[in-house]
Amino acid sequence: MDFDKRLEEVRSLLAESTRRVDAQVSQEQDKQNAAQLALHDFIHDQQSQQTALQSAIEQTKLEIAAYEARIPEAEQERQQLTEAIDHMRREIATVRAKRTGTRLERVKQKVAQARGAATENQVRISQRQDVSAQAMACRDALKLDIITMEDDVLKFEFTCVHEDNPSEAYYFILCTPPKPEPYTVRECVPSVPDLPDLLQALNETRDIYQFIRSMWKAFYMFANKKRQVLA
Predict the structure, then answer these.
(1) Which CATH architecture has domain 143-226?
(2) Helix, strand or coil for residue 19?
(3) Cα 203 to chain center, whole Å?
């Protein structure tokens, strides 16, 4: 009896030990499985990261290759841009030179015009002085009144022409432009038939003194024509 009881206790202890061992083995197996799963996940993560890194490296290589391929084209564009800028600068310099030349030419023309105008004014002044001198020589002798109406335009008015009416005025308005423009008579009161011939002679000789005397004589002949016929 004691032996059987003892055997049963041994069996019970053995079964308990077996359960404990099995439990420990199961726990160790679970730990090992968990470790393997964690290792598998770690390896998978590392592989994913490595794949992503490799992909990033490949993308970077492609970008570097594209950039390197772009360098000659960019250099060519830079060269073209530099040439375009140089060409534009030359064109601007040419335009500026033309404008400067044009302005200089205009200044020269204005200077020449100013000199020409000054010379023309001097000629006008000289001719006016000559006309005035010749007219003044006739003024007192012919009872002549000289009126300046505007530049180069003079009115010559005579009195003491008509023997029966000495106060009656006879006049002509003479335009005296500088050479080579001809003298012209703007108005003549009264009109005398010899005026065209007298004016032609004036333009041939430019002798104002003689023209004034001839006009006085023509006025005198016209005014006293009836008196001469009656006489």
Answers:
(1) 2-Layer Sandwich (3.30)
(2) helix
(3) 49
Banded model confidence at residue 82, pLDDT cuts 50, 70, 90: confident
Confidence of residue 153 (pLDDT cuts 50, 70, 90): very high
Q: What is the pTM of this model?
A: 0.43
* CB atoms closer than 10 angstroms to residue 6: 10
CB atoms within 10 A of CB 20: 10
Q: Angle, to 10 degrees, between the axis of helix 2-139 and the axis of helix 208-223? A: 60
Q: How far apart are CA 186 and CA 173, in angstroms?
A: 5
Per the DSSP assignment, residues forming a β-bridge with 183 are none
| Spatial CB neighbours of 209, under 8 Å, sequence gap ≥ 6 | 134, 135, 137, 138
User: What are the b/e assignments for 31-60, b being 16+ CB within 10 Å?
Assistant: eeeeeeeeeeeeeeeeeeeeeeeeeeeeee
Torsion, CA 52, CA 55, CA 61, CA 63, rounded to 10: -90
Q: Tell me the per-residue pLDDT of 155-186, one tens digit each, with 9 for 90 and over.
A: 999 998 988 898 999 999 999 998 889 999 99
3-state SS assignment for residue 185: strand
Segment 106-119, tens digit of pLDDT: 767 875 776 665 55
